[in-house]
Amino acid sequence: MAEFTMPSLGADMDEGVLQEWLVSPGVRVAKGDVVAVVETDKATIEVECFETGTVGVLLVEPGTRVPVGAPLAVIETADTRAPTEARREPAAKKPLVAVPVVVPATPTENLVPQLARPPARAPVAAGPPVTGPLVRHLAHDRNVDIARIRGTGRGGRVTRHDVDRASVAGIPRVRATPYARKVAEELNIDLTALQGTGEQGAVRAADVRAAGAATKGKGGRPAPVTRPPEQHGGGQSMRGTIAHLMARSKREIPHYYLSTTLDLATALAWLRAANRQRPVKERVLPAALLLKAAARAARAVPDLNGYWHDDHFEPGDGVHLGVAVSLRGGGLLTPVLRDADTLQLPALMAALKDLAGRARAGRLRASELTDATLTVTNLGDQGIETVLGVILPPQVAVVGFGAVTDRPCAVNGLLGVHPMVTATLSADHRASDGAVGARYLTTVDRLLQHPEEL
Amino acid sequence: MTYEQALGLVREALSRVVPDAGFASVGPDEKFRDVLEVDSLDFLEFVEVLSGLTGVRLDEDDYQDLTTLADGARLVAARAGV
Question: Fewer Cβ within 10 Å of end Cβ, chain B: N or C?
Answer without folding.
Answer: C
